[in-house]
Amino acid sequence: AIGLLVVMFAVGMHLPIYASKTAWIYIIMAYLFLASVMPMWLLMQPRDYMTTFMLLGMIIGAVLGVVVAHPDMELNAFNGFQVGNSSLFPTLFVTIACGAVSGFHSLVSSGTSSKTISNEKDMPMVGYGAMIVESLLGVVALVVVGAVAVNGTKPDGTPFSIFSSGVAGFLE
Questions:
Q1: Of 10, 41, 90, 146, which residue is 20 to 30 A from 110 by alpha carbon distance?
Q2: What is the tens place of the pLDDT at every residue in 1-30?
Q3: pTM of the complete model
Q4: How many distinct structural domains can be found in the chain?
Q5: Residue ranges of the CstA N-terminal domain (predicted)?
Q6: pLDDT single digits (tens) 79-104
Q7: Can you say how many angstroms the Cα of residue 15 is from the centroid of all Cα atoms in its chain?
Q8: N-term to C-term CA, the chain
Q9: Bond prior to 39 in cis (omega within 30° of 0)
Q10: Co-location of 154 and 86 in the same domain
Q11: Is residue 65 within 8 Å of residue 166, measured between CB atoms?
């Protein structure tokens, strides 16, 4: 399955699918409909299994890229959390690594995780491992954004485009 995933990435890089925004909306809506009516073992477990390898591959690549590229960071020192009328709490616990700081996934993923493991005794390790990987992803995201910032100003674009272009720069 991992070999097929690598082949599909290579095919996608050489033969990308271009479609209009409307076409993508219909494709995603069809997928969402199918995902809502198909049994979990048929769609969710194989998809999540493969997604795990993509996520781990990206994190490993990003960490190696950061270590090898050893980027310079031009950021101002932290002088407090000042974003309009927002407070640091609960923002920190909701946003950093999808709630890795707060343990959010240990609460909400139990319905999915319980169906994908063979023994309930494995749950603490699965939950802890997921939070550690999410925390690592959060640290990598901070390093990537810090490395692509110019004179303390983050680049323009969406968070996804900033992160992906930063990681891609490390892997070149």
A1: 90
A2: 888 888 998 899 899 989 999 999 999 999
A3: 0.65
A4: 2
A5: 3-148
A6: 777 667 777 666 666 666 555 555 55
A7: 24
A8: 26
A9: no
A10: yes
A11: no
